[in-house]
Structures are given as C-alpha cells and as structure tokens.
Amino acid sequence: MKKKTKIIWLVISLVVFAIIAFIPTPAALTGAGQIALAVTAMALVLWITEAVPYTVSATMIVGLLAVFMGLQPSLEDPTVTIGTKDALRQALSGFATPSLALVAGGLFIAVAMEATGLHKRIAFIVLDKIGTKPQSLVLGVIIVSIILALFVPSATARSGALVPIVLGIVTALKADKKSNLMKMLLVTTVTSISIWNYGIKTAAAQNLLSLQFINDAFNVDISWIQWLIYGGPLAILMSIALFIIAPRVFKVSEEEYVSDPNAIKKELHELGPVTANEKKLMVYSLALLVLWSTEQLIHPIDSTTVTLFVFMLMLLPVIGVMGWKEVEKGTSWGTLITFGIGISLGTILLNSGAASWVSENTLGAIGVQHLHPVMMTIVLSIASILIHLGFASATSLASVFMPIVIGLILLNPDPNFNPVGIALIQAFVISFGYILPVNAPQNMLAFGTGGYTAKDLMKVGIPITIVGVALIVILALTYWQWVGLI
C-alpha cells in the first residue's frame, strides 16, 4: 500500500472514531462504552487496511482511551468522571495478566529453538523417516507442525522455523521454486500451523487472549489437557482433511523433482552431532509438555508459571541454552505490546457494557441468543469466518469478536445453557485463517517467498474452511455434547 493511501486510511480511521465518540450516547450505552466502541471502530479500520503497524495502532488505542474515556462519567458514580489516570490504568491493564506472561514465555522459548537449531533437527528426522513421495512429504510437514505446536507457543515462530526448512527440502530435491511441490509444501505448512493453533492451548496467542476473556466473564480456567480434549479432535480431523486435499489440489509429477531419500539424510548430516544445548532444550521442552498436560491433574501450577520458571532455567549459566542478548534480539516485542493492548481493549468492551450493547443490537437483534446451542455455534462460527476475511491477525480478531460473543451468550436465559463451551468453540474458530494470505502472519511469511500465489492458497483454503464448518456441525451434534462442552 502506498504511503498516500495509508495516510488516507489513517485519517478515515480518526474520522470514524470522532463520529462514534461524539454522537449522542444511546440510552442503553454508557459513555465509557461509547468511547470503547469508537476506539474499537478506529482500530478495526487500521487493522484491516494496515495503514499503520500494529504497535502504532496499539499506542493510539492507549492514548485515545486514556484521554477520552477518562473524561466520561464513572460507572460506579456518574457524578464524577473516570479520570485519565484510572482510564490509563484500564488501557494498560492487559500487561498485568497471566496470558501476556505466557505469550512472552512462548516467544522466548521460540528464540531458544532458533538459537539451538533444534527445530531443524526435529523436522529432518521426521522427514527422513517418512520419505520423499509427495503425500509422504505432506504428512511429514503436518507431523512436524504438530510437534512444534507442542513446544513453540507462537504460530509466527513456527512458520519462521518451518518455511526455511521447506525451502531447503525443495532445493535438496532439485525442484523448481514455482513447482507444484513447492506450492503443496508451503500451503500445507501454513494451513497445518493454523489448524494446530486451536488443537493445543499454548500454540497461539489468540487462544490465551480468548481464555482471558472467558475467565474474566465466567471465572473458569481451562487447563491444557481440557483444551486438548475439546479442540484436539477437530484439529486431528482437519489435519486428515489437509492430508487428503493438498496432494490432490497440487498434483506433483515425478518429473518435477528427484525423489532421493538420501537428500533428507544429507540435510540431517550437515547439522552435525546433537549439541549440548539441543539436549538441554529437549529436556526443558519435554518437561514443559509434561507439566502443561498434567496441570490440575497431578499438580496445581498453572501453565504461565511453569513456562516462565522453565524459561528462567534456560537463561542460567551452565544449565541454560542461551543468553539474554539472544532473547532481546530474537523476540517480537511488538507482538507483546499489541497483545497486551488487545486484552485491555477487550476487557474494557466487556466491563463498560459495550460488548453486550453491540451483541444485543446486532446478532441479538435477530435472536441468535435464543437459538439452540448447536445452531448458535454454527451461526457464530460462520460469522467469525466471514469477519476473519478482513483481518490480518487472529489476535486482533479475538480482542474484538470474543467480547461480543460473550456479551451475546450472556443474554441467553436458558439455565441449561453452557456459555463457556460456546465461547470456547468460538476461540477455536478464530484461528480459521486459511483463505487469504493476509488472514494470518504465517500465511504472509510463506507468501513472501514467492512460492505460492493467493489463488494457490484459496484452492486449499476454501475446501478446508468448508470441511471445518461441516466438522463443527458434526462435533456440535455429537462429541462436544458427549464431553459436556455444549
């Protein structure tokens, strides 16, 4: 996007803010809620158009909330204003949450993977065992994606680790960079990363953001193993669908590449023997997996505390695997800033009543809150998928959509209704960013290699999305009811 176009969209976003902020406040909406909606609308324009970087939009959100919400009447005592200091405190409240700390810990562990090169060894070992036939390579990429999702709590980091490996495989197999083999493996890579975002609780930032809102609204903690029980089957079935679809969409002929089993062995051999730091990181990673999966089962320590404690060990002399300079250089600090502000904005939308007001006057106006839980799940899922087409970040989508979903769910008067289950399923669907390159950072990272086009991604993304909706319907009618989620 040209600089002039970006400036135009920036101006439009501020005009949208001003219009919503200064129109007469609707009777059922608080002043603070109106400002929260105005800021959210501005953020939506910025996020969809990418007129400014996400970190810049985050600072704009903080500044506007602090000033304009601070001038609004207090929710507790309408005779006094909230005050800019308290408004600023609310705008920065997301930085004092366990969810942000867990995302930070996850990014740090991703740095450790990069520093030691362990991710490469894992990938080549798996691919060496699987083989070099097209369908075998697809299976190998999916398996590697699953393994990394267990240990690397960042979709972008996993993409950054896997994409260079895929490029290396294609080169080793003497295939052209415009070949169907390249397209198949890159599209499989980014799609499988998105799938396992919702298969594992700690795999993506948007999961933790959604859980923060669910916990705030319903005072319920979802453990690592509970998330796996609920979301794992959907991710497994989607992986099977990807395994079937990708090789059929991108038909790879024998002439496209040299199917040499020794090519992967050569890549593995060039990594050399396993280093001491790799061995230590293996131990730490396995310890993390065991502690995450046994949370609330055999020990009371939450996932965030476990992650930060293990990260502390990784930094210590002798037993550590890296130094702080590597962490400082390799961490996406902008991601943490955006995530923290996203939590703050979503929390303000909930606490000010803005989310409930939007829910009641949009989806609530057509009676979605009175639908059977299964029908509500389907309608909300389709709405989320359609809205996601305009978003370049699932985290941003979660910060806006999840509070609205929760606001809608709270309108349902049925005592037998399980609000947590409906909200959790929507947390899964937020990761359905399969169709466009701009729908997820991992898509854009791989797209930047020039190895596939937007049309190539859609060839797999649209069928996978349709399969996903069908599976949500099937699981909502069967498995999720059996395990008490719906």
The biggest sheet, with number of strands, parallel, antiparallel or mixed sense and barrel status, is: none
> Level of helix content?
over 70%
End-to-end distance: 43 Å
The number of E-state strands comes to 0
Overall 3D form:
globular
Low-pLDDT residue intervals, each spanning 5 or more residues: none
**Count of helices?**
23
Strand content: under 5%
**What would the average pLDDT be, to the nearest integer?**
87
Helix-and-strand structural type: mainly alpha
Radius of gyration: 23 Å
Order of helices and strands: HHHHHHHHHHHHHHHHHHHHHHH
List the helices and strands and how they pair.
Elements: H1 3-22, H2 31-49, H3 54-69, H4 84-91, H5 98-116, H6 118-130, H7 134-151, H8 155-172, H9 180-197, H10 205-218, H11 224-249, H12 261-270, H13 276-293, H14 303-315, H15 324-330, H16 333-351, H17 354-361, H18 373-388, H19 394-409, H20 419-429, H21 441-447, H22 454-477, H23 479-482
Helix pairs in contact: 1-2, 2-3, 2-16, 3-4, 3-16, 5-10, 5-14, 6-7, 6-12, 7-8, 7-9, 7-11, 8-9, 8-21, 9-11, 9-21, 10-16, 10-19, 10-20, 11-22, 13-14, 16-19, 17-19, 18-19, 18-20, 18-22, 19-20
Structure, described:
By secondary structure, the chain is mostly helical. The chain has 23 helices and no strands. The chain has helices at residues 3-22, 31-49, 54-69, 84-91, 98-116, 118-130, 134-151, 155-172, 180-197, 205-218, 224-249, 261-270, 276-293, 303-315, 324-330, 333-351, 354-361, 373-388, 394-409, 419-429, 441-447, 454-477, 479-482. It is globular.
